[in-house]
Amino acid sequence: MARRMLWPGLIGVMTFYVFPFFLTLYYSVLHDPFEKQFVGLNNYRELLQNAAFRLAVRNTVRFSALAVPLAVGLALGFALVLERRIPGKSRFRTALLSPLMVPIASVVLIWEILFHQNGTINRLLASLSVNGPDWLYSSWGVLVIVLLFLWKNLGYNLVLFMAAISHIPAEIVEAARIDGAGAWRTFWCIKWRYLLSTTLFVSILTLANSFKVFREVYMLSGNYPHEELYMLQHFMNNMFRTLNYPRLSAAMVLMTLVIGGVLATLFYFEGRAQHSVEE
Amino acid sequence: MKHRIAVVVAAMFIFSLLLSSCSPNKRLPAPPLAQEPVVMGGYYKATWQSLEAPEEEDLQVIRLSENAIYFSTYSYSDYATRLYRIGDGEKTAVQIISSTGIGNDIAIGKDGVIWSLCYKIVETSHEETDTGNLPPPHHNVYIQMLQADGALGAERLMLENVQGVGADVQATTAGVPYWGIDNVLYWAPTGDLNDLKQATAAEGTEYHEFYALGDGGMAVLVYDSQAGKSAVYRLDGETGALGKAIEGCTGENVTLYDGSGGYLLLKRDGDVMYGLTDGEGWVAVVDLAAYELGEYQKSNGFSGGYYPLCRMMADGSLLMMDEEYDLCRMTPCAEEEAATVVTVAGNGIGNVTELARMYNKTQSDYVVRTKEYSPTGATDGAAKLTAELMAGTVPDVLCVDNFLPARALIARNALEDLYPYLESDAEFSADYFVDGVLKAFESDGGLYQLAADFTMETMFADENVVGDLDVLTPVTLKELQTAHPDIALFFSEFMQEELMSYVKTAAVADHIDWAGGTTSFDSEDFVQLITLASTLPTMQEVIDSWNDGSEVVSSDQSIQAGDILLARSAVPSMWRYAHVQELMNGRAVFPGYPAANGQGTVLTASNRFAIMSTAVQKEGAWDFIRWVIQYQNATPDVSLPTTAFPTSREAFERAVTYYQSDAVTYRLTETDIARLREMIVGARSALDYDTELATIIDEECAKFFRGSCTAEQAAAKIQSRAQLYVSEQM
């Protein structure tokens, strides 16, 4: 009976994940989907030599390397602050969580109003006699997108960290305090051990979200943004639009392998952290 | 007590019987249908027949009978209404029905007898009404019986000296004629016009069209003006009373036809033909969309009926008339005898559908079906094509336009190179085309699209003023300005959008090296070009200027008067080229738009056809393309301003001959013709329009035009984004 219950899910996974993956693998070794000429790894070789792809990889890695630690670190920091009894704690928490509920289109609109060349920030700068840059079409664009990403994702990460903090046994923390451990030592020796697995989990989620930042960038600056904002998903989306399915497939296969590798590593460490806490 | 109840029940039963027998909605017993309903399906062969009505006569009424086609025409030369009969493939003029006839209607009775409704004008007023129209003439209304050879058998005057009477005539399959004249129903059960029966429509209702039912009965469409509804009722052949309304004969977009093929009635709803059966009601008989009879003309409420344009024959074939009054007979056949289907798809291809219909009427090996990606010609066509490509169901012929990613399709080997097709075609080779045209249609050395005609966009100047100016570069433009400081460079209404259109289409090629994967939109030339665009008025500014009451002067007038150095001109036709030369007394030179390489005349074409590399019917696709090109180049009316340049060398030379003949006011000189040929050979193609690059240029230039950035900054951003785009394609 239990096995039978598995079938619908299994069929869904096979149909929408496994089969498309193998189809993608198949397309990635064809010259084109029309004449279906087998070209081996030629698409991969061309892909790795393609300037746009390399730029997209570089930008995506740089963005993730910048945004993920910030989103995780800041959320953890805020969670630790909010753990204490501070005035306006509830309002602060609400403020951090509210971006989760705002539709992305309106968020992008607000961001555009703020960071447009003739937007609010540049007008403020102009009133201070400072000539503001074109935020979205210059190297400053990365900063804008990182800010947007943090604004959008901090709340969710915060909730996860706050939940994890609430599960740290209070008696252990209390015992440490009684034994004379300071705040830093309490955090590092007790709280961090309990929070490590959550931190890794939050990192995985944030990393996955960082790959999805394309949506915001696309809505802010279209298919071909400033070159520093050009992400892997821009490349893939544009390959689809220009019907270059083989190259798109090759990029997807490579991306799947890389993300799979990173996630497997993170999950491995998360498992070990979990194990260490349990011990 | 029981007895009383039994009496009351019996009385009620008898009363209800009496009531039901008096009810106008009583369902009359229908005679059995003469044959089993014909079931369409399987494979069909279509044969077309044109009525070939005389061109000088207007088609009036068309009737189909089992054995012949009848149609009447109205002639404006002698004001006569003529009746024609096509039987056994032969057309004969049967009779002049009326020497002053208008609004004549006919019905075909048994043994070829023709029942007619004839209006004869008795008085015509020539005094205009308040609305400026002539009032309808007074006429007498007759009903007639014509013999099979058209000779008048009998005639009866029904109304005298009337205006604008609504009337209709129809005959049952048993041959009984029915007339509806001024809301009175007449019928002749014995065929004798002196032995008419009549019935009057109930108050508030109007008789409209009649329909001969498949079982020999007659039905009439009645409009209830109080309810605002129409319904079709079976008529009682004895009393003329209306029977029960026939279900499914109301609503919009429905065309009713007489019953045939074993069906009481036929109706076309959208592309499906339904037949009314005795037992199962309306049943779908055939999907007409599969036969390419043309788009069904939607109507509000009932249409048709006036022309019985559809008839199902006893042998299983379907006789159907299309919108051009050509008759299609679809006969069942074996699969191998059926024409091979070639699919043609594209955005906004209404005119291609027309061509396909013409092709289908004249060619028998293939039948072309068109698939409209987007009736409005918008960008969603590209999404549909992409989805089809992914699904592996592509059309055979693609109508390429600016919204379909032609370059991407070529790069992905999705389109066939048509040069090998031309090389292997004995009758239709590269020599068929005007010099320079195929070169302009090329992309990366291959010929992926072909068109039947082309147009050009250019700028022209007076040779006496600018000399033999054959190219226009940013440098020559400056030199011109310096040499003629008192003359404006462009016409005051040469708009920013017009120059930008050129920038986004043809000029883009100057700044992209597809082979090397580099772009140069930050070059001085491009900056100069968009700077020049920024100096021009926008379309809105030009429109606003029209409202200031100043005298409107055209570009042609300005250059003729020597007020401007350069005039932008579309040269869509030989007529326009001759017109420009006439305007300038043969001194017009065509340097084109400002271009870095001086090649600023742009050649473009609509209705470009390409063959998909995965097409199932490549031979059929090629057959259709070559047919379209040859058909459109057969007899183009080059005297019209709107007739584009033919791509056919022969047709082009015919046009040249025409414009060098006495038929025109300005005869093109040999120098003019040489200039035109040079212009075509030197023209650059606008066929590689790239929506992506156009969008990038549009977005960045808009900021520059608004004053948000400098031309250099805009150009730098275009360069950055365009480079990204080009890099992706490498």
**How much helix is in the residues of chain A?**
over 70%
Number of strands of chain B: 40
Which percent bin holds the helix content of chain B? Answer: 25-40%
Mean pLDDT of chain B: 80
Proportion of strand residues of chain A: under 5%
Q: Averaging pLDDT over every residue of chain A, what do you get? A: 85
Question: Could you characterize what this model shows?
Answer:
The complex is a heterodimer of chains A (279) and B (730). In chain A, 76% of the residues lie in helices and 0% in strands. Chain A contains twelve helices and no strands. The model of chain A has no long low-confidence stretch (mean pLDDT 85). Chain B starts with a helix and ends with a helix. In chain B, helix 10 packs across helix 18 and helix 17 packs antiparallel against helix 18. Chain B is of the alpha+beta class. Chain B has 18 helices and 40 strands. In chain B, the strands form ten sheets. In chain B, strands 31, 32, 35, 36, 37, 39 and 40 form a seven-stranded mixed sheet that branches. In chain B, strands 21-20-19-18-22 form a five-stranded mixed sheet, with no helix packed on it. In chain B, helix 2 links the parallel strand 26 and strand 27. The chains are: A mainly alpha (279), B alpha+beta (730). At the A-B interface, helix 3 and helix 11 of A face helix 3, helix 4, helix 17 and helix 18 of B.
Write a concise synopsis of the structure shown.
The complex is a heterodimer of chains A (279) and B (730). Chain A has helices spanning 2-27, 42-49, 51-83, 89-97, 104-115, 120-127, 141-166, 170-178, 183-211, 214-221, 232-241, 245-278. With 279 residues, chain A is mainly α.
Give the tags.
heterodimer; A: 279 residues; mainly alpha; B: 730 residues; alpha+beta; 18 helices; 27% helix; elongated
